[in-house]
Amino acid sequence: MASDPFSTRRFNRFHGRVEGDGRPCAVDGCAEAGEFRAPPPEGPASHAEGPRWRWLCLDHVREFNSGYNFFTGMSPDEIEAAQRPFAGWERETRAFAANGTTPPPKWQDFSDPIDAIGARFKERMREAQARADAKPLSTDDRKALKTLGLTIDADRKALRQRYTELARRYHPDHNGGDRTHEKALQEVISAYTHLRKAPAFA
Asked: What angle do CA 100, 103, 108 make, to 5 degrees?
């Protein structure tokens, strides 16, 4: 029988579960134990107030994490600073002990039940990338830009130019009647029709 991945403190410290306090889940109507901490709806406390958390059950902390965006409320400059390759390295950290007694974790022992660093990480990073002019981009906007081969900072003029270029490239009238590119042409038309009505291109 496989061992319970939550059965030892060694594993618990890696996935964030805190057992044994008998606290209930903070979601109204939930009778499960609150064993995973999350920031409160109003946001984290200031340094002067100290840390402030609410405790959730596994299902509700998963739900919280699926909608959490680290970059919410940041300006484009703050997002760019947080995404720098060496962000955080300028802060002083404690020295590692040369003869520490705690062995490093083995990857085969690692458990990630709340998907903290799972598949949604890359998606969140893409969602967080902002335009230089701070105009909003929806997921559909980003998909349409990708279809047209445009960057997220493209303007209305670039959008029209790219649409004209691709429409001519794929239209049968410009390919001797060849209709093999009809699907690509329809995707280009659909992407352009969507983007010209999007707030970022208003």
From this structure: 165
